[in-house]
Amino acid sequence: MQFSKITIETIHQLKTIVKPQNVFTDEETLKRYSHDETEDLSFLPEVVVKPETTEEVSALLKFCYDNTIAVTPRGAGTGLSGGALPVFGGISLSMEKMNKIIEIDARNLQAHVEAGVITEVLIDEVAKRNLLYPVDPSSKGSCFIGGNIAHGSGGPRVVKYGTLRDYILNLEVVLPNGEVIWTGANTLKYASGYNLTQLMIGSEGTLGVITKAVLKLVPKPSHNLVMLASFPSADSACEAVSAVFRAGMTPSALEFMERTGMEWVLKYEEIKFELKDNVEAYLLVEVDGNNLETLRADCEKIGEVLYKHGCSDILLGESASEKEELWKIRRKMPLSVKANSVYKEEDTVVPRAELPKLLKGIKEIGNKYGFKSVCYGHAGDGNLHVNIIKESMTEEAWENQLPLGIKEIMQLTVKLGGTLSGEHGIGLIQKPYMSIKFSEVHLQLMRSIKQVFDPKGILNPGKIFN
Amino acid sequence: MQFSKITIETIHQLKTIVKPQNVFTDEETLKRYSHDETEDLSFLPEVVVKPETTEEVSALLKFCYDNTIAVTPRGAGTGLSGGALPVFGGISLSMEKMNKIIEIDARNLQAHVEAGVITEVLIDEVAKRNLLYPVDPSSKGSCFIGGNIAHGSGGPRVVKYGTLRDYILNLEVVLPNGEVIWTGANTLKYASGYNLTQLMIGSEGTLGVITKAVLKLVPKPSHNLVMLASFPSADSACEAVSAVFRAGMTPSALEFMERTGMEWVLKYEEIKFELKDNVEAYLLVEVDGNNLETLRADCEKIGEVLYKHGCSDILLGESASEKEELWKIRRKMPLSVKANSVYKEEDTVVPRAELPKLLKGIKEIGNKYGFKSVCYGHAGDGNLHVNIIKESMTEEAWENQLPLGIKEIMQLTVKLGGTLSGEHGIGLIQKPYMSIKFSEVHLQLMRSIKQVFDPKGILNPGKIFN
């Protein structure tokens, strides 16, 4: 792809489109916007622009479209697939200044927000009105709603509440040529032509820039309970996961963690927890609802299922601090793993009951290619984060052998009815594996859709496919 | 659009692609496939073809693509927007022989079905395994899963369980040129490039023919309770609807019915129900869950909200037959209205709390243009079916004045944050109103997506847009 370089003249013009103080070319800023949370990858943008309104985004994109300038939209930079990396330089378009909660419409159980609102800020704000926005990725404290939508981000509560997709009613989108549309309507149902709202979700900023969103909210359950269950093997824990659902229970979260992950969390975090022998895996189970007695009965029933599948011990969190402590273990796991070693993270997802096969296969592939992995994730959704640990691997093995192993993991995932990514997206780093999942016909449909929205290919170039 | 006529030679060739006995040209069959449930519209196909396998659909479409023959895919013909009408003649492609439930995967809470499975057949089959497929349009006894997906069909349980969209994991689709793809993966989460599954849902057979689907199931709640609440005015009933949700309750159905609809049901159906004076509207409320005591408490809480909003009386259905009797009123309403008069049905949808404004506006527009309407629908979703009754209207007013009135209803719907159709689709009859909701830029995006999938425009021509 051939994009125009950013010149002094371009910078001058950008400063007439957005406020001059929102155009950055200093080295420190460029460096900060050269990476997201994906491994140690870094690509310098030529300029960082922070628009404050939809009109500014529109004028900016029109200018870039007319001048064939590469634009990489950016949320909070918490992505794990390299979606916000400006691999062709050009403009890093940060949505951080469009961070207003426009309205919390309690009459309709909806929230109207700008794309740069931090997910947890919204969750906390709606909670004050006894409402729940149940989409809470691990990075909720810093990630943006707009980035979540662009990547189809998930989180632990999908298992009961459904995916982010089920909570996005309508999007304001600036198309690559600067035109602005609302993709749908502010309604719970919609059968009015092709659903562009759903097409935008997960399109990773390649089809348009999401500037505003109308979100569905639900009544906030008044109670929840949390259990941490220990298992003698990862296999028995995985088997227990689908047994819980087969028993007719729908927990509001069901997370899986390997022992090594737990060890590393305890190494880096102040958490009171006794690591016992003969425990190889943990399940974190949450139930929520409006009746505490019913929840206690649910926990008992779920507990029975877990014990039947080899569970050796269950810790119950009832008080707010106990529950917080149990959740902290799971929430801190990604950072602890990251702190412990150079790593690569794969975001495998399979039908729930295939988890044991997936986990077993991953370990076998690891043995074959000589890598260790720490797995945890949203087991209730069949979504397993595979953290491949460099530790003592040679650079040569890391660079040349590992990609073959990852390819085999992806092949296994697809063979089990799954796909390359459950909630992180394809971005830059999963691109090489697309042909494992998709036929050329399928890929060509995607490329042609991209062409419809962005004939000049200026928006987030180099992502999802080539 | 210029399509090839079906000749004797074409028929001969079709009989080499599918079994000869599955190609129909007799007048009776052509007539039966010339209409769906949309008003009294009728367009004769030139031939009806009933493939039995995906391979046959693929070969058929390839042949039609190569020879520029119009193909109108058809489910059970229960549609209310004319989506299955072969307006350009050509082939009516009926999916009725692809009606196998391939697998009910109780381990993964999934069902694998062919597109021609009758919705209720699937619902009953999964219920035997204590599972729930919560998508149950009024026509569930005859409509097909494939047609439901193509139209984004709804039903009463969306209000708690979400739309059909949330239950479709993966689709086998035959593209207009005969290529076959699976659109996604059999997983609860999916962040792997543009989501073609979601794009296919609601595309009304214009982008590809859905041949198989993988559906998400949920545990079936063991109990439910039904209430029928009477209100002195439609306005107070509508106000009560959003109050229920604001009180933190999420019923599994919340249906609205006008008094006239009730009168007509009682006229045509054997139902024991006393129609009282001073009642102008009804709400049917269902709650479901695993604990009967909790449900009784829920009913009490919802009842309090309803009484506070002017409800004069609540009938509680506890036994299976009582509940069935109350549901029968709502389920029989569409047919009773249809039996009573020539009518047109609009499928308006707005944010839930705007229902009172919508209903009031519809009546005012009716007064202005001289038409009567009977309204009922999925009030919990803000989805109101507006049945415009011909009765004593002159042909002239019906043909010329009414469309202006409908246009005003659509304008009002859009103004209130809603859209043209909540669950019936655009098809043929809502097409004239598309420009009320969508800008030319937006429509052009849809047309270009159509062009990507179907460059020759052979699949369901004349639908959604021109």
Automatic annotation (TrEMBL), chains A, B:
What Pfam family is a match, any one? FAD-oxidase_C
Q: What is this protein called?
A: FAD-binding oxidoreductase
Q: Which UniProt keywords apply?
A: FAD, Flavoprotein, Oxidoreductase
Q: In what residue span(s) does the FAD-binding PCMH-type domain sit?
A: 41-220
Species annotation: Solitalea longa
* Entries under InterPro entries matching the protein: FAD-bd_oxidored_4_C, FAD-bd_PCMH, FAD-bd_PCMH-like_sf, FAD-bd_PCMH_sub1, FAD-bd_PCMH_sub2, FAD-linked_Oxase-like_C, FAD-linked_OxidoTrans_Type4, Oxid_FAD_bind_N
Entry superkingdom: Bacteria
* Keyword Thylakoid appears in the UniProt entry: no
Query: What cofactor does this protein call for?
Result: FAD
